[in-house]
Amino acid sequence: MDLTDAVAVVTGASKGLGAQLSRMLVDQDATVYGLARSTDRLDALQNHLGPAFHPVSCDVRKEDRVEAAFDTV
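The structure corresponding to this sequence follows.
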């Protein structure tokens, strides 16, 4: 599947299923905004995935943080 020009937002992107989904989407040429609380893990994932992955520090339990994250996207 070619996801060129697609933009995805993945929550929980710093580990587990979220990280794996981010990898799969980037492999299909999507631009991915990965949301998670762990900035260190997000930065490590960006170093691995490259410029198509955009780390966004966000605690999805807090509405104001989610709104700020989507302003970034």
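Residues 22 and 44 are 13 Å apart (CA to CA).
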